[in-house]
Structure formats: C-alpha cells, structure tokens
Amino acid sequence: MTGKTRIVVEISDANAKKLQRLRTEQSARKGAIVDEALTLLFLPPIERPEAVLVQQIKRLEKKLDRLDAGAAFQADLLVEFIYAWLQQRPGPNPLRSPTDDARAGAELEALMKRVADRSNPFIWS
Q1: Which domain covers residue 20, as residue numbers?
Q2: Is 5 part of a structural domain of the chain?
C-alpha cells in the first residue's frame, strides 16, 4: 500500500481547466498535482519554496548593497588619491612652492594610510 487515500472533491470549472492544463504540461496525474498543492498549502510559511527564494533574494540584495557602498567608497577614495597625486606632481607652476609639494606629499601619504586602514586593517599596524 502506498499510503494514499482516494477522495472525491468538487472544484470550479476554472480550476478544473487549470488542473487539466497542468496535467498536460507536466505529464502528471491530477492526484499528484493536487497532493503537491496541498502539501505546499499546509507547509509553514517560512518553509514554502517562495519564502526560501524571498530569503535568498533579500540576502543577495544586502550583499549587493554592501558591494555598491564599497564601490562608491573606493571611487571616492580614487578621486581623492588622484587629486592628491596631481597636487604633488612636479611641473612648471609658478604659484607652487616647495612647501606646497611637501604638504601635498604628506597629504598623499596620509590618504594612502587612510585608504589602507579602511580597506584592510592588516596592512598598516
């Protein structure tokens, strides 16, 4: 014995058509389709397949948000780095003094330490 009970139920014509369409599409017995539907109906909400998918989607969305924040942070740091690097580049600028170059170099070094501190705490100790 397979542990299955035979029952007779009445369903609407619309649901009967849907059941017939599913039976044809999935090449399954009507009883198996109804049994699976009832199994899903009586599962606790957290264990239903759509709930599991929703949980996975939420987890992925959180990871994407962290990646987006990290990418934006790194882009900002890259702009700061390029700006500081351009400030300390030698070149014919009559308004720049050696003091400006030393200050720009110190700012660039501080920026590099700040970037490394934020992205990997094991680099600078």
Answers
A1: 13-42
A2: no
